[in-house]
Each structure stands twice: as C-alpha cells, then as structure tokens.
Amino acid sequence: MLTPAVTMMLKGLLGAIVVIIISFISRTENYFVSMLAVTFPTFTLFATFGVWQNQGGNIQAMKDTMLFGCLALLPLVAYYLTFYFMINENNFSLTVGASCLAWAAVGFSVAFIKPYLI
Questions:
Q1: pLDDT(37) > 90
Q2: How far apart are CA 106 and CA 104, in angstroms?
Q3: What is the pTM of this model?
Q4: Is residue 44 a contact partner of residue 69, using CB atoms and an 8 Å limit?
Q5: d(CA 62, CA 52)
Q6: Between the CA of residue 54 and those of 2, 19, 46, 48, what are the distances in Å?
Q7: DSSP-derived secondary structure letter, 40
C-alpha cells in the first residue's frame, strides 16, 4: 500500500505527463488530437481508486460512479459546443469564459439531477 504522500506525488506526476503530452501534440500539424489527450482518464483513475477504497469495494457504488461519469461528460460537451459556436464572433477570452460558464451550468444541473437518474 502506498503512503498518502507517495500517492499524491504519483497523481501530480501523472497530471504533469498529460500536460506535457498535450503541449507537445498541440504544436504538431495534428494539433486537434490534443483534445484526445485531454480525455485520457487521469482523474477518472484517481476517482475510481478513491471510490473503490473509500466505499470498501462496494460494487454498486462503483456502478453508480461509472454511470454518473457518463453524465459528467455532458458539461464537457457544453464547453466544447459553446466554444465552437462563439469563437468566430467573439474574442478568445470571452469565448473561454462563456464556455466555462456553460460547463458550470450543465455540471451543476447534472449534479443535482443525479439522484433522480441513478
């Protein structure tokens, strides 16, 4: 079993590796593939192990978490679509800000409707 300090360092290292990969890919002619690196389940892995350990290996808790994880993709879709449709007519900062607000609005909605769906 890893100590909490080692676990935290490994999480930081994995996050840094993903950032480096995204930075590298975004400089290539296939820059759009950097969005695929963003979807690598870095934080999902942390959450999966965290739920598994903290819920005592409860299978139903894992299934609920995975189903909610599917719903949690909706805020990301809201971010991407807002950005896609706003960037032509607005500056970058406004587009990013509005996209983050769209993410938050959908994210909070998903969080509040979760008890009714799972």
A1: no
A2: 6
A3: 0.71
A4: yes
A5: 7
A6: 15, 28, 12, 10
A7: S
Place of tokens 């008890």: 115
Q: What is the mean pLDDT of the chain?
A: 88
Q: Could you report the per-residue pLDDT of 39-86, keeping only the tens digit for each?
A: 777 778 888 888 998 999 999 999 998 988 888 899 999 999 999 999
Distance of CA 65 to the CA centre of its chain: 14
CB–CB of 82/102 below 8 Å?
yes
Residue 56 carries which DSSP code? T
**Do the Cβ atoms of 68 and 118 come closer than 8 Å?**
yes
- Reading the block at residue 20, the tokens are 């480096």
CA torsion through residues 74, 78, 81, 83, sign:
negative
37 token code pair: 């690196």
